[in-house]
Write a structure and sequence with these properties.
By secondary structure, this protein is of the alpha+beta class. It is elongated.
Length: 177
Amino acid sequence: MTETVKKVQQYKVEALNRTKEVLSGYNDLIFSDFRGLNVEQITELRTKLREINAYYKVIKNSYLRRAAKEMEMPDLSEVFIGPTAVALVKDDPGAAAKVLFNFTKDTTLKIKGALVDGKVFSEADVQALSKLPSRDELYAQLMGTINAPLTNLMYAMNGVILKFVRTLQAVADSKEN
């Protein structure tokens, strides 16, 4: 009994390797269905994502499925149904989710799910992530919290000195009269 070995075409191997290379270069992935978007809308979305160090790329589901399996990612089979585009996020997945969900309000874009820090997120999870403050906003809040006691101490010390100066001025004014 002879077994026939199916030879994989070279361009498919190269496309799979490119897909794995692209996916491995990013920390977080947000998957969406881009059906109904025109070229101008996709270009606008890509521009907005680029501003926050994220990129939007359309990749065939078969390559995504195979690359995810070979890279030992969690099961994302539910996400790879229908046309799929991937938001590739390096820095802040919350900011990218916010951009994508803001874009869904005016277009037909539909969020399918995400892979954030190695965990699979549903559409609802991605929406919740989009409502969280961005990393920069959290840093600003933290710095404000750290600075608050020192700022209050400075105002209190200035108040004492200011009150003392005003008292001295009042005494000086009363002696003139």
